[in-house]
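Standup notes
- DV: blocked on the single-chain target, sequence here:
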Amino acid sequence: MGMLTLAPEVEVLARFGRALADPIRCQLLLALRETPRHPSELAEAIGVSRSRLSNHLACLRDCGLVVAVPDGRRTRYELADARLGQALDALRTAVVAVESDRTCAAAETEGCC
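- DV (later): unblocked, structure below
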């Protein structure tokens, strides 16, 4: 049996979906949609430890959704493309408009992007 090859656009959407599958990563993306931030600001804003935050930021970097930008002796994180913020807004609005009183069945995810 041959291995399934995904079209590039399908692969990109699958990575985006895997990134959104985790509530902490969703919070990070929504926070970065507002403005670029340093890790300490992000950890405080979403209420997670720096080490946990670091793992999620690494995942989002590996998925190509955020970039780390040197900022003096610190690193600032921002969305890799401003259109990601627009996509998050559109997706959030569309999902809420469809059925705000329903929740998705819990799905097990393996690893990260």
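- Follow-up: The chain is about 55% helix and 10% strand.
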